[in-house]
Amino acid sequence: MQEILLDAPNLGNVEREYLLKCLDSTFVSTAGPFVPEFEEKFAAFTSSKRAVACQSGTAAIYMSLYEAGIKPGDEVIVPVITFIASVTPIVHIGAVPVFVDVDINTWTIDPSKIEEHITSKTKAIIPVHIYGNPCDMDKIKEIADKHNLKIIEDATESLGATYKGIMTGTFGDYGCFSFNGNKVITTGGGGMIVSDKEKEMDHIKFLINQARDASKGYYHPEVGFNYRMTNLEASLGLAQFSRLPEFLSKKRGYAEIYKNAFKDYTNIKFQQTLPQCESSYWLPSAVVESKHTIPEIQQLLKEKGIPTRRIFMPIVEFPPFMKYKQESYANAYYIYENGINLPGSTVNSFEQTEYIAMEVIKNA
């Protein structure tokens, strides 16, 4: 059996062709045709009016907060289980992260617990579609509208996922995507912001290019950022984007294998998706109740050639964020203590995934 991979990218001849085309064009830096083409195709795919490519998913979240007018001292609601990059932009901008527990089944932010955390300082909510699983966007939008809050969707893991037939990343004021090496598609690094706010997106595009007014040469009327995507990255992104249906089909196929294998075992619960929603299943994940700890299960699976990863640790466990801990976050800690990410790389085969599922059952 070939090596089983956790979240490695799927690269081949299509990517090679696009990269060589970019090299031959000599447009390898930030000026050139590949970035605009990637932005246009991405906007069309998500049914957004505009898409702006940037340096990373983290940069996408930061620029969205910045353009949304989030200021030092403002409060931003965010789930306590997520990747750290959902939170660091809040702190970098000078705002205060306010952590909310997650739903025990979907692992996404629990809408029923959001309002109790809203104060006069609350200005935005960052719902995170964790591991590709869509949040309950109807309830989140209802709360945001009621309290006049901005919504900045962290869709960095959920490219291609849908909530009631609508793409994640398109419900809020801004949607943020990541193309890190392990994401649904990759540009090696890089991110994307989508929005229907055309004027604001023009401003973001201007700001990430050092706020340079090219009509006046090297003239900078605002303090800008160097958060641009390169054409080399965009060319790889275009190649990967052409294969997105293939990748999503495989990931959803893996998820069905895992779910069918685990359905008769009460001690293994696959991450659940809300009705009328479709996850991208960036990383297929489950809660395992066992006499073994998750690290012990990981070691047993590793001995069988199966790589795994622990669920993200609650952010309030990290030293810089301990001061923001307000409660016990019981669901988040339960999921962290018992949760595991399973192989979801599209390089893997369906046969390998069946083998993985059986070994999880044997070692749970």
Q: What is the terminal separation in angstroms? A: 23 Å
Helical residue percent band: 25-40%
Specify the overall morphology: globular
Strand content: 5-15%
Helix count from the secondary structure assignment: 11
Radius of gyration: 20 Å
What is the string of helix and strand elements? Answer: HHEHEHEEHEEEEEHHHEEEHEHEH
Low-confidence runs of at least 5 consecutive residues = none
Query: What's the count of strands?
Result: 14
Within the largest sheet, what's the order of strands?
1-9-8-5-4-2-3
Q: Which structural class do you get from the secondary structure elements? A: alpha/beta
Question: Secondary-structure map with pairings?
Answer:
Blueprint: H1 13-25, H2 34-46, E1 50-54, H3 57-67, E2 75-79, H4 88-92, E3 96-100, E4 122-125, H5 137-147, E5 150-154, E6 162-163, E7 166-167, E8 174-178, E9 191-195, H6 198-208, H7 231-242, H8 244-262, E10 268-270, E11 277-278, E12 285-288, H9 294-302, E13 309-310, H10 330-338, E14 339-341, H11 350-363
Parallel strand pairs: 2-3, 2-4, 4-5, 5-8
Antiparallel strand pairs: 1-9, 6-7, 6-11, 8-9, 10-12, 12-14, 13-14
Helix pairs in contact: 1-7, 2-7, 8-11
Summarize the structure.
Helix content is 35%, strand content 14%.
Describe this structure in words.
Helix 1 packs antiparallel against helix 7 and helix 2 packs parallel to helix 7 (231-242). It is built from 11 helices and 14 strands. It starts with 12 loop residues before the first helix and ends with a helix. The longest helix is centred in the last third of the chain and has 19 residues, at 244-262. The strands form 3 sheets. A 7-stranded mixed β-sheet has the order 1-9-8-5-4-2-3, with helices on both faces. By secondary structure, the chain is an alpha/beta fold.
